[in-house]
Design goal:
five-stranded antiparallel β-sheet; alpha+beta; 136 residues; 32% helix; 1 helix; minor pseudopilin epsh fold
Length: 136
């Protein structure tokens, strides 16, 4: 019975670790998909769009440009139990032109209690690339 309990405890811990890692990946994938959506929306509507990240509120906000400047489209909370730990964008964030090009390049760091990962955004395409998870 003792060996079975030890094995069961090990399996439970493996699944717990995977779920924590999976939640972090899911957060990065949601942001990655939203960046693609914002780029496509900028092209489809023929107007600049912007995504800005806020470490203090653990959110990112999407704006679109009008004749009166940038207007709020929506604000999203970062995925559950995941913190936006860092970003190196200026306060304006990542901007997509009506042609779909993006400036500037940058990165964000996401973390939970066990892991952290980086999502990098390339200038020009605005592609969001998820880097390998690191245990901290």
């Amino acid at each position: 019975m003792g060996i079975l309990s030890i094995m069961l405890f090990g399996v439970i811990n493996i699944f717990r670790g995977e779920s924590k890692e999976a939640g972090l990946w899911r957060a990065a994938e949601v942001i990655q998909a939203d960046v693609r959506y914002v780029r496509n929306r900028a092209v489809r509507h023929g107007m600049r769009h912007r995504i800005s990240f806020d470490v203090n509120t653990n959110t990112y906000t999407v704006y679109y440009e009008t004749n009166n400047g940038f207007q709020l489209l929506r604000t999203e909370n970062i995925y559950q139990n995941v913190l936006l730990n860092f970003h190196n964008f200026p306060s304006a964030g990542l901007t997509f032109t009506a042609r779909g090009t993006a400036t500037p390049a940058g990165r964000i760091e996401l973390r939970n209690s066990f892991y952290e990962l980086t999502v990098t955004f390339t200038s020009g395409t605005g592609t969001a690339n998820i880097q390998e998870i690191v245990k901290h």
